[in-house]
Specification:
Helix content: under 10%
Mean pLDDT: 91
Shape: globular
Strand content: over 45%
Distance between the termini: 29 Å
Low-confidence stretches: 1-9, 13-19
Structural class: mainly beta
Largest sheet: 18 strands, antiparallel, barrel
Number of strands: 18
Radius of gyration: 24 Å
Amino acid sequence: MKKAIIFYLFICIILSSPLFGIDFGGYLDNTTSFSTDENTGYYQIDRLRLWLTGTLGKDWTYSMMGNYSFELDYPYLFDIDELVLKGKWAFIENGPALFSTGLGRFTISEFSRLVLNHRADGFQFDFNYPGTIISLAMGYTGLLSKHSSTITLSKADTNDQDDTSILFGTPRLLGVLQFHFPEVFSGQDLYLSALIQKDLRSNENILKEGEENFSLAENSGGYYDSIYSGIGLSGAVNSSLYYNVFGYFQTGRTLSYLEDDDAIGGYSYQYVPIIAFLGGTEINYYSPDLSYSTFSLSFIFSSGDEDSISCVEGNTEGSSFLFTPISEQKERVIFNPKLSNIFYIKGRYTIKPFAMLPLSFLENILLILDGTAFFRATTGAITDQKGLNPDSEDLYLGTEIDFIINYRPFSDLGLSLSTGYFIPNNEPGGAFIKDIRSFEFLGKFEFSFSF
């Protein structure tokens, strides 16, 4: 109902303006995949997205996009991807060289996009000064469809995902303050970022600190609040070699079931501090003379907690050292654990094999080969627990190899074929149990048509 009211008001604002231009269109997408994992098996989703953009006078623009999705488990899903009103002003007297603002539904992200890259309803401001760009954004996620939300930070969040009577995503406040210093020295860009994530659930169905009955944990959880501070540096070494390096420090609180001398049973629920970190680097080499080839090598490390039995409120002793990003990112075809107690080394090679040939209908074929080796930071829990051996001390989890073909024969037609192969470490004493998790394959075909 709230979405309908917001949409109606937005339309009224647009139609009441005497000066506006409109552009509109749509996308039709299909994804079909098959996996050897019996829990995934055959999967198909069709999505229709419609968009509308326009201007309101000389300073304001608006954009909106909605989608309808059809899949076997959820045949009727409607959602609003974007609904935002934007303003932009240049050369403000005694102010920034450029000031822009946005109000509505949009994507909030930080410079790495590994901690936060998620839609929310709120506002954003950008102040462009000579040598500095300051960005501030705040948003609420409780009006998003839970099927499009990737924020699951507490047991209350995971329980809501399984409850068919709940339609909306986790109610959280997100905030990002970022400083970007372009070409701070020798063509290098410096980023400083601060993020907050606040759980806005009511006290209903939330475990209270001091509760001693562990069985209640199956039906409800506690609050999860977090703060992140980050720094990043990126730039070019020469015309072909590029890099970026970054780090994030996380604090906050999470609910844990710990020893308590004052409790009758010896244990109670307590909030404990979070002390965790994430870091990574990536190097890219671009060779346009070799059919526009790109070679990249990246390393990502996220801290873990050895005594955690779960990545969601699973800490069992002292402070929690488990890094937990706000949103989830799926970069690979099969194995996509959240960046919690995970580190990996990834190599990627991309090439346009026919770009140098006089065959225009083949020049937009892009081949991508990915290889990623996964490890645990500690022997504690990871988010993908399927077949994980609780007795194993081995940190090596396995390797995934992905091969992707992207082809765009026309500007409005895109095709993609992806194959993924995950080889888990299920040798005796390995991280996974062989009878539960063995070699996995997933093939996926994607089709996209714009109009």
